[in-house]
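> tool_call: predict_assembly(chains=two)
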Amino acid sequence: MPELERYRQMARIREVEERISALYGEWEMRCPVHLCTGQEAVPVGFCAALSDGDKVLGAHRSHGHYLAKGGDLNKMLAELYGKADGCSAGKGGSMHLVDLEAGFIAATPVIGSTIAIAVGVAFAALMRGEDTVTVNFFGDAATEEGIFSESLAFAALKRLPMVFVCENNLYSCFSPLEVRQAPERDLLAIARANGIAAASGNGNDVDDVHRLAVEAVARARRGGGPTLLEFATYRWREHCGPNADTDIPYRPPGEYEHWTGRDPVTAYRRRLLAGDHATEEALAAIDAGVVAEVDDAVRFARQSPFPAPEEFATDVHAG
Amino acid sequence: MSTPVSWIATKQLTYAQAIRDAHAIALERDPSVYLMGLGSPDPKGVFGTTVGLAEQFGAQRVQDMPTAESGMTGVAIGTAISGMRPVMSHIRVEFALLAVEQIVNQAAKWRYMFGGQMQCPLVIRLLVGRGWGQGPQHSQNLDAWFAHMPGLNVVAPTTPADAKGLLVHAILEDDDPVVFIEHRWLHGIKGDVPEGYHSVPFGQARIARVGGDLTVVASSYMTLEALRAAEHLAQAGIDVEVIDLRTLRPLDTETILASVARTGRVIVTDNSWRTGGFAGEVTSTIAEHAFGSLVAAPRRLAMPDVPVPTSPALARFAYPRARDIVALAADMLDAGERVAALQALPEPAHLDQPDPSFVGPF
């Protein structure tokens, strides 16, 4: 049942992020992590609308995008542990995720930078006549970059088969939206002014995300050009790192509580139970399964060897 | 190493025509190759280097683009990691500075940062130059910046034959990003260029002139100034070896060190500023690995650390030229009197335009 699968995927991402948070203090994962706790609904709702051959690119906060597109969990955790079995062989860490088999092409952390690369991936598909939709996930801050505007303009010019997905979590590091964008700034209008279809939705409602994603992906696939979707959501943890940061007075009073009260995972759980889509037992079994899977992945990552010293200088150039 | 061309059919082409030739061969051979750049398909065709190619190969193979260097470099990278072989041209290196984030963070590292699973076979043509009042923002040559980056290849050919051969290699044979530096003062020079498929591998310097008294290391346009200085010094019985690097990264240290081992004296020229410039890299390599061969301190000849002014009355102080090499060489060889006794090295009437005497072959 797709509803249960959506729940499982969100619960799984939540469990992964919270496990990273719990284990990070052991100092074995020695790389920056940008956790997406609280933002699970967008990747899950969106990727459920994609086919296996479709392609996804992320940014710095992309554990959820990688996992929702089918990226290998063992390889992701091994990558965070800096191990040879990591998805980037230990050379990338949390900020450089890839699983080509799953269609997760890349995540890199410099804000806005992958947007243009995603446009290029879509452009290659168009030039070669491939039936592939390309999706790029990024945050609200990325829309402030010049490369965002450049990318929209070119995607519209070539009517590229792609979807731009903005997860607006209100913050760029600790800087709130109101110090970065005029209150009149309308992201959807910016997209439309470039000739791109646009819509916004509730980023904490996996069904709402999915509904908009289906429409946008269908438009891309039938040659109708790109779409920009903006989803309102909220980052629970600090910008970078495993911790809560409510002790730092940068979020307005009540804001954190407002958003954690709209937790996408528990809200969906309640909806499934209320709609008779699932029983408490079925959901508990899913939860237990997810915990066991993450247990295994952590074990895999810990047991994986470190890359051999000679790997330091490989893969700089071809050959 | 000099290119063995004697048994190959050649024709006289300008450097710009040779580049056009390389483009045509690459487009013909590999359907995944496409050219992109502001004005690529226009009638002037990026100083003649793409003229007629859009007509021959179609609009999808030779594309114009929005004035969005950063975004379009990202687009080119996206196509390269998807299996295509884009060639992007920027008619001034300064315009490409808008794309440095993409070149440095993404293209240069794409193979490495994902553990070798993908590659980024992207060629970025950067046109550099000097003269004609191009001033502070149209006459820089930032070769050393790009050569600093692991993961990039940096190519700066001098001759039409090398321009063709190195560009063919860059587009069709090398699977990594290449920064291909073309000096505008070279576009008009002529030389014998092998016909048909001709490729020159990276990392093999060319000995442009054999000599035993002193080595001059150069690349791109400065090779011509070095050759001119060498001809002049020969009249005073000074035998100068000129090494044309061809590629800055990878750097052919073997050829440089072997030459210095024979001559014991070296001048390293630079197409850019002195501080942090590429001549410093070459000089350091020589000092580290050939110190025992040196009979005099190695010398650098680079632009003074001043932005390039526009007025010809001021810009003439910005660029080193043959007579500066001559003066340095005379000093290093203690041959001031012998060199001073020569008829003065003829100076171009105008220093802000390419010297028409540079016609090759080289």
